[in-house]
Amino acid sequence: MVGRQWLAVLAAALIGGGAATLVSSCGEEDGDVKIEGGATGTTGTGTTGTSTGSVTVDTNATNAEGLDEAMSKVTAYARGQTADLVGATVSLKKAVDAGSVPQAKNAYAAGRPAYERIEPLVALFPELDGKIDAREDDFPKKAKDPAWTGFHPIERMLWRDGRITARTEALAAGLVRDARTLDRRMSAVTVTPEVVIPGTAELVDVVRASVGRAAAAALGELARALPGPVESISLRVWPPDFPTDIAVQRRSPWEARADAVMYRQVLADCARARGWPVHLYDGKRLGDQAATVLGDRVDEVLHGPRKALGPPWTKDHRTALAAAIVGGGLH
Predict the structure, then answer these.
(1) Domain holding 309: CATH number?
(2) Contacts 24+ apart (CB under 8 A), 98-104
(3) pLDDT digits (tens, 9 = 90+) for 206-249
């Protein structure tokens, strides 16, 4: 394989971390409401308004009294967050009405977490979830569909278009109305255990879809920028029996690995969709495999870039390059 093809595979191999960064920057983290397994679970803490206290719930409670207490605490937390959301959307509307893109961006970034922290619980009100948090892919006309409302069309206008229009102002006003409706309705209900897991599973699907969009766009940009075709993409292997059930993924040892595995799985799917062979490497065997391919040149190839390009050239960079070389040799 020629040098530029190795660089193509190396660039693709490094996108795994980039996809995670893209998702995080778009607000696609799983929020702060985390009801974990074990003796106790702890939700995250709010950062604004009245919901700054921590909440500890007993997720192993099996009696009615224990479950009621746990859900009462989660409900109180959710109500605090919806109250915060109302204030945040009002601030966003003021910035939008003032016509200031920088101020609107700051207000958006400050207010969005109030929704993300309780996103799994908004499954109680699916019609409001659709109004507040729908994605353009949910609509026939995509971004041009007039039915698309909520946070994300505003996000697109602020970051992608870089301007505020009459449509932005209307969307901000609608977001305030929907936030107030959500706050009012959340104040009238109690969260139940039956809502938590399905809501979390739905959120995982949303995140996976967002990762897919970001990864597909990144791979498309990579393919257009390279002077030659991509021969293969190399990703660290994941257990073939990695669980798909959300309840199982929340247990040790799977919980700490679920995000990273999801990113790699989605990236592999996107690469295969483009017709790129996917090489899964085992980090423990990678050094020996690279040495087999490179022979006496192994030190020069894997450590030489630090001398030629300067720092940083870390173990992660060497691993990515070795994986690209081994994957290229196999394909």
Answers:
(1) 3.30.420
(2) 99/164, 100/164, 101/158, 101/162, 101/163, 101/164, 104/154, 104/158, 104/164, 104/168
(3) 777 878 888 888 898 888 998 888 888 888 888 888 877 766 77
